[in-house]
Every structure is written in C-alpha cells, then in structure tokens.
Amino acid sequence: MPYRRPWDMVRYVTIRSVEDRAVERWPIGVFASIDAGLGVQLAVAHELGVPTIHLHTPEKSSRTPENANRFLQQLKDFGLTITVVFAGFEGESYADIPTVAKTVGLVPPETRAERKQELKEIADFAKILGVDAVGLHIGFIPHDRNDPLYRDVLAAAQEACDHCAKQGQRIHLETGQESADTLLQFLQDVGRDNLFINFDPANMILYGSGDPIEALKKVGRYVRSVHCKDAKWVAQPGKEWGTEVPFGTGDVNAELFLRTLAELGYDGALTIEREIPQEPERQKAEIGQAIRVIQEIKQKIFG
Ligand code: MG
C-alpha cells in the first residue's frame, strides 16, 4: 500500500465525508403503489435505483397482516424503505378544484365518520409495515375558524392524531389546498405534537394557494416529508388547475426549493411524485430525469 502523507489523509477523509453526506442526506424516493394506483410499481422503483418510497395505501381488501408480511419481503428484496404511507379514500376525485372541495379528505361531512375509521385502519396497517408517518390530503379546510365545519375537521384531525400518537406515529398533512397561513393556523388549533406537513410545492401552484417557496419558509418547521413535483401557473390560479410538469421544468424553481429545504435543516427524503400511471414508460423516464435533476442540485448544495 502506498505511503500516505498526513495531508493526503486529510484530503481523503474530506472527500469521503462529502460523498457519504451526499449519499445519506436526503435519500431520493418515488411515490409507489402496491396494487393498482397512481404511483409506480415497486419493481419500477427498484429499477430506478431509489432507496425510499412513499406508499399509496393499498385497497382495503389488501390491508391484511399476511399481505403486510408479503409486502415487507418484497421491499426487502428491492432494497426499499417506506418513509410515509399515504391514505386515500374511495369517492375522492381530483377532477377539478370544486370537485376536490366536495370529495377529498375528512372535510365532506357525509363520509367523515367512515373515513376517520378507515384512516385509523390505514395507520394500523402502516404500523405493521414499520412506518411511523401517515400522510393525507385532509381536504379544503374552511378559512373561517368560526365555521362549524372548521371545528368538525379540527376534531377529526385531533382524533386521528391521538390514535397515531398511541402507536408512535405522526400525521403529515399534504399542502396545497390552503394557504400557508391557513395551514399554520389549523396546525396550531389542532394542538397535537405529532401533526406535521408533507410539503408539495407543485400543489401550491396547481391549487393557486400561494408562492411555494414563501409558503415553505412559513411552514418549514413543520415539514417532515416532501414531494418533488413541479407545475406551471395558469392565468386564473385557484379557479382552474395549474399544469403539472416534470420536476425541474416548471415554476417551482427546483434548485431554490432544495436550497430552502437545506436552510431549514430539512433531513428527510426527497420523494418524486409524477402521477401519470396511464403512461408508464413516460412516467419512468420523467422520474429518471427528476432523479438526475435532484442529484445535480444536491451536488451543488453539498459539494
Ligand atoms: Mg403530493
């Protein structure tokens, strides 16, 4: 072995530590599904070479302890770790903004009791999978705190948080359907220390809820997971949908987004969301491109 002079060793150690940091910090992930769903299949996540996933919750009939064990074996075989299980409910539709308000999350009164129960079951299933975070779109929270609907959604969120707290889990609310200020107020009013945010910068644009970077700075202390997703502003934000585009090609400003996360001391995964399951080849190619975009930016930020 060649003689190493002390300054070579210093250089060697420095280079290694930078490399290690780039590998360990902000593991890249993708949104994945086990059964039919919007995310990529586990095998595709594996082919893309990412170490983590956000998992769309499997359908009710698949959420059995036996299946959980089978999923766990698949994840092990593919070298994947689930960082967040995302809850979704039958009857939800993201067709347009008014339909989202009517159908999504714990806001619609007619499905709330049933969905609250299902959310608890999803948290229990996540627990079997060894996952300590459950994500969801809670729905359009009313802006007026005196609206009875606001108080009902608040109580539903508290109940869900208390259920998760008992099993050492957090709830991550997905951003987008309200402004950063409304979301902050809601988190404070719920008043539970296991309630956090999954920050999706594209949703701020898609729903017309505010500048994503300004919003991230406001709610940053609550952000425990993120979606790397991008979108373009439309002429009438909040009235019509923004347009979703591959990460790094839209109005989010991918580099500024990641730099802001670094400033906030964010240390979770960077999970790419590109939900075009009807075009699996394009979905895989665009996620592959997003992985390269993120790797380049990480390199710039961390050296
Ligand atoms: Mg998202």
Topology:
Layout: H1 6-24, E1 28-33, E2 40-41, H2 42-48, E3 52-56, H3 65-78, E4 81-86, H4 97-103, H5 109-128, E5 133-136, H6 148-166, E6 170-174, H7 180-190, E7 195-199, H8 201-206, H9 212-219, E8 223-228, E9 230-232, E10 243-245, H10 254-263, E11 270-272, H11 280-302
Parallel strand pairs: 1-2, 1-3, 1-11, 3-4, 4-5, 5-6, 6-7, 7-8, 8-11
Antiparallel strand pairs: 9-10
Helix pairs in contact: 5-6, 7-9, 9-10, 10-11
Descriptive labels:
303 residues, alpha/beta, TIM Barrel, eight-stranded parallel beta barrel, two-stranded antiparallel ribbon
Structural write-up:
- The protein starts with 5 loop residues before the first helix and ends with a helix.
- The protein has helices at 6-24, 42-48, 65-78, 97-103, 109-128, 148-166, 180-190, 201-206, 212-219, 254-263, 280-302; strands spanning 28-33, 40-41, 52-56, 81-86, 133-136, 170-174, 195-199, 223-228, 230-232, 243-245, 270-272.
- Helix content is 48%, strand content 16%.
- The longest helix has 23 residues, at 280-302.
- The relative contact order is 0.13.
- The strands form two sheets. It has an eight-stranded parallel β-barrel with strand order 1-3-4-5-6-7-8-11. Strands 9-10 form a two-stranded antiparallel ribbon.
- Residues 1-23 have low confidence and may be disordered.
- It has a single domain, classed as Divalent-metal-dependent TIM barrel enzymes (TIM Barrel, Alpha-Beta Barrel).
- The protein is built from eleven helices and eleven strands.
- It is globular and about 50 Å long.
- By secondary structure, the chain is α/β, with parallel strands linked by helices.
- The structure holds magnesium ion.
- Residues 174, 200, 203, 227, 229, 273 line the site of magnesium ion.
- Magnesium ion is lined by residues 174, 200, 203, 227, 229, 273.
